[in-house]
Design a protein that fits this description.
The complex is a heterodimer of chains A (about 375) and B (about 525). Helices cover about 70% and strands about 0% of the residues of chain A. Chain B has three domains: about 240 residues, 3-Layer(aba) Sandwich (Rossmann fold); about 200 residues, Rossmann fold (3-Layer(aba) Sandwich), CATH 3.40.50; about 80 residues, no CATH class. In chain B, helix 13 packs across helix 14. Classes of the chains: A mainly alpha (about 375), B alpha/beta (about 525). Chains A and B meet through helix 11, helix 12 and helix 18 of A and strand 2, helix 10 and helix 11 of B.
Chain lengths: ~375, ~525
């Protein structure tokens, strides 16, 4: 009884519990929606979403599908890290999609027009994202423009700028709205697989991007928890005035934070487009979902860089699983609908955490808890007694 | 209606995990009296009031109104029983007018349209009856703290509350406003209202209260008549030992000049004019200089200019012989420690643990950060534990306590420990005892004098007259951004100091060479400045 109460107050366990609760609720509501549309196929459909790659028939096909999911998890994780990092510093980087677009734009342009190596393309993509992030940061630091507003506007500016730049002769396939495939355009710009493809039924899109993204997660966690740099950034996020009082350059810190967030999202984009998994469509008119799903992954991951690794994989997995739903039973939009319901519920983690804490404190307050009285009595005597 | 008590809290016990906040406490408020509730920070005053206000439920004990037992489960119940409270931090909507704030929650409407005329008439009648002068159409953000407080009082009266709780109402007021508040409280008592007055300022209890109930560390110590009890006795009841009300100190032995401020001018953030105008003075090694003045006469801006938080419009600051006028905050902090005015806004990162706050000024130094940029967490933990022990900083969980969860007095002690322990030649202490109880104030004053005796220069900025008279070796009075007087605390009186603070008198004048008071008390800064040039 006592142990249970103490562990419920443990913030790490709380994060995990509330995240799981969100997932269960999301699935439940998704299931109800499926039932309402067509009760007959609902069970199979929700199973397909959950199982994703496991619903394939052969083991080879399963591994290949898992590889695809992992390949898309890497960029999602980078976007989630971008948002998580900024959030820890008190900034809501909803501009991650714009930074992601900038990364895609420069990464692909450098690969196809300048024929550069993948490492350099990756760095340039990161720089592009950083610059877009820094614009929001500078506006926030010097003109007190809310980063959410400038971020959303930059998302659209960057989308059409990217469409325009990637429609250039050197980078766009003349026969389709897509950019030229890297396989034919510049093989050197493909992120190497380094043997990882062999593990996933020779899925060539499984590349170094995946371990690199996990390394970035660990790096971000280390920076935030262990370094002087992280100490300064978090202090700025918690209390800008106290940071200034302590001699920190609080304006500079805001810009640096959003620039780092931008770099992460920018590199995230090249983790997708430089694997050859897909090409950029120069006619798209909506901001890529990757950046927004990163928000859900951040919260589902308990605002912890390591937690976002698992959360990103889960969100990518149900998104891919949703695509496998039998389209003859359900309309084709169902996959997006169900995964967005689940992702939407993932955003409620903080709410559930709050509710849980309210419940705990209410239980502590409400009426004398017989088990606790002797213990608290002794403790209080130790503290409260006269010396 | 024959019961003598308007409200009674009998044998109240309230426990929190690990601590008994209220241990069998009895508080009886007579009808038409001002009853003070006295106790140190963390003595359980706020918890007791929260029980009365329905924010917490007591495990044991009963609450009686007019002799009848009542249950108070939430603030609405308290309201229905006629209990109102002025919180220490006002609960007002900044962009609403005074009138809108007063009627908030009890608006009368007709067909969905607010009926303001009736409310306006009632507010007007109330403010005349009790001498509460506030413009009902002024916006809260435009009026002084004193007027905001009057708005809070009107809010209670508008709801016909009979039992009024004032939670440390004078902490934010100027001496004049405090006097006005005392007058208002007297008026309220004369009209038959019963008042609970939470405070730890003995002078104020002496001035208005009829009886006082003293709490210490969650326990009930006693209820006494104010008229027959001396301040010394009350403070002994409160802290459990004799408190030295007079600050003990040797005469100062001033040495070399540590801080030299010349013609400092700082712009105001609120208005277009300058908040600090042409201020010049020196602080020597081994002395405490106090800048006295009523709140809002440029002290805050002066400190911002001195510590580098705001740029100077004009002037020069020399610290230990080095021109620091253009230096950053970080550069200045090598020689200068700063106990800030607002400990929540500037002094602490409230969401950081205590140990991280203890190194807020030093985290980047090799002692706490390795060459590779990693924090040395073990060293930080040990350093925090060392400071906590040395300065008696108490907290629930030691170094890992989140600063927000600590009491105000201990937060302040942590800041003082941090600022005194770091290398410095000048300590700038801005209202270091604000909101602290007698015992803690004594400790802070001892720290300041020890600083002085250790050969540091101390610049104290204070609004508390008692502190201004007792702690420093020299007093500079600031009025409307200028230094208008320099006084010797041993030779001056509170009345004279008050005249300088109110701008009615000055002995330092830039244009006039003949000061109004004795030569011996005056240092003519203008003449000194001419010599410099």
């Amino acid at each position: 009884m006592k142990d249970k109460k103490f562990s419920l107050k443990n913030p790490a366990l709380q994060s995990i519990l509330t995240s799981l609760l969100c997932i269960v609720l999301g699935l439940l509501i998704g299931y109800i929606v499926l039932l309402m549309i067509n009760p007959a196929g609902a069970g199979t459909a929700i199973k397909t979403i959950l199982l994703n790659f496991l619903s394939r028939s052969s083991q080879a096909a399963q591994m290949k599908a898992l590889g695809n999911t992992l390949a898309k998890t890497a960029p999602l994780l980078m976007c989630a890290l971008s948002i998580c990092f900024c959030y820890k510093v008190g900034l809501f980087n909803i501009g991650a999609p714009g930074q992601y677009e900038a990364g895609a734009c420069i990464g692909l342009y450098a690969a196809l027009a300048w024929h550069l190596n993948w490492v350099i393309c990756l760095i340039l993509a990161g720089l592009a994202g950083a610059i877009v992030g820094a614009i929001s940061g500078a506006l926030k630091a010097y003109r007190n423009v809310n980063e959410v507003i400038s971020g959303i506007m930059l998302n659209w500016i960057m989308l059409y700028l990217t469409n325009m730049i990637l429609s250039g002769k050197k980078v766009k396939d003349p026969a389709s709205p897509y950019t030229i495939k890297l396989m034919s355009g510049n093989k050197g710009a493909l992120i190497p697989s380094a043997g990882l493809n062999a593990l996933f039924a020779n899925n060539k899109t499984v590349t170094l991007a995946i371990p690199l993204a996990i390394l970035f997660a660990i790096l971000i966690w280390m920076i935030l928890a262990k370094t002087k740099f992280g100490y300064e950034l978090k202090a700025t996020g918690y209390n800008k005035e106290a940071a200034k009082y302590a001699g920190m350059k609080e304006k500079q810190n805001i810009i640096i934070t959003l620039a780092i967030g931008g770099a992460l999202a920018g590199i995230g984009a090249s983790f997708l487009f430089l694997t050859g998994y897909q090409e950029w469509s120069t006619t798209q008119t909506s901001v890529p979902m990757m950046g927004f799903n990163g928000i859900a992954a951040t919260f589902l991951g308990g605002l912890h860089p390591i937690g976002t690794i698992f959360a990103s994989f889960f969100i990518q997995s149900i998104t891919d699983g949703g695509a496998l739903i039998n389209k003859s039973v359900y309309p084709s939009q169902i996959s997006d609908l169900i995964s967005s319901i689940i992702i939407y519920l993932c955003g409620f983690v903080l709410f559930f955490k709050y509710a849980l804490n309210t419940w705990i404190s209410k239980r502590d307050k409400g009426g004398p808890n017989v088990n606790d009285v002797p213990v608290t009595n002794d403790d209080a005597k130790k503290e409260g007694g006269d010396k | 209606m024959d019961a003598p008590y308007a409200i009674e809290m009998v044998n109240i016990t309230k426990r929190f995990p690990g601590i008994i906040a209220n241990d069998n406490i009895t508080l009886q408020l007579r009808r038409g009296e001002i009853h003070a509730l006295l106790g140190e920070n963390g003595a359980g005053k706020s918890t007791l009031m929260s029980v009365l206000f329905g924010l917490y439920q007591a495990e044991e004990g009963v609450i009686k109104k007019d002799g009848k037992e009542v249950k108070i489960n939430n603030p609405n119940d308290a309201n229905d029983l006629g209990i109102g409270m002025v919180h220490q931090h006002f609960k007002l909507v900044q962009c609403f007018t005074v009138l809108e704030n007063i009627i908030l929650g009890v608006e009368s409407t007709k067909g969905g349209v607010l009926q303001m005329d009736e409310a306006r008439a009632k507010v007007k009648a109330l403010s005349e009856k009790y001498g509460l002068h506030v413009d009902p159409d002024a916006k809260i953000e435009d009026i002084t703290v004193g007027m905001q407080q009057r708005t809070e009082i009107l809010k209670m009266l508008f709801r016909d509350n009979e039992i009024l709780i004032f939670d440390e109402p004078t902490a934010v007021l100027t001496p004049q406003e405090i006097e006005e508040l005392m007058e208002i409280m007297n008026n309220l008592r004369a009209e038959g209202k019963s008042i609970l007055f939470i405070t730890h300022k003995l002078n104020e209890i002496k001035a208005v209260a009829d009886r006082v109930t003293v709490l210490r560390r969650g326990k009930y110590i006693g209820t006494v008549d104010v008229a027959t009890t001396s301040k010394e006795e009350m403070s002994r009841m409160m802290v459990g030992r004799d408190v030295n009300m007079v600050v003990d100190k040797e005469p100062a032995k001033p040495g070399d000049v540590i801080l030299k401020v010349e013609n400092m001018t700082v712009a105001s953030k609120m208005h277009s004019n300058n908040a600090v105008k042409n201020v010049s003075f020196e602080v020597h090694k081994g002395e405490i200089v106090c800048i006295a003045g009523i709140d809002g006469n440029g002290q805050t801006e002066f400190v911002y200019g001195l510590t580098g938080m705001e740029p100077l419009v004009d002037g020069k600051i020399t610290l230990c012989g080095k021109d620091i006028t253009k230096d950053s905050i970080r550069q200045r902090s090598k020689l200068l420690s700063h106990i800030p005015e607002d400990r929540h806004k500037h002094g602490l990162v409230l969401d950081y643990p205590l140990e991280y706050n203890m190194v807020l000024q030093r985290y980047y130094q090799p002692e706490f950060t390795s060459g590779a940029g990693f924090l040395k967490r073990k060293e930080i933990r040990e350093y925090s534990e060392k400071l906590e022990a040395a300065y008696d900083v108490r907290s629930g969980q030691g170094p890992i306590t989140i600063a927000r969860a600590m009491s105000g007095g201990n937060q302040q002690k942590a800041i003082i420990a941090r600022e005194i322990d770091k290398d410095h030649q000048l300590l700038v202490a801005v209202q270091p005892t604000r909101g602290l109880d007698v015992g803690a104030i004594e400790g802070v004053h001892k720290n300041l004098i020890a600083e002085r005796d250790n050969g540091r220069a101390v610049l104290l900025i204070s609004l508390e007259l008692e502190e201004v008279m007792n702690v420093p070796d020299r007093i500079l009075v600031m009025y409307e951004g200028e230094i208008v007087g320099e006084l010797d605390p041993k030779k001056t009186t509170v009345e004279e100091l008050g005249l300088y603070m109110a701008g009615a008198k000055r002995n330092v004048d830039i244009d006039a060479n003949t000061p109004e008071v004795e030569e011996s008390e005056v240092i003519d800064t203008a003449a000194a400045r001419k010599e410099e040039k």
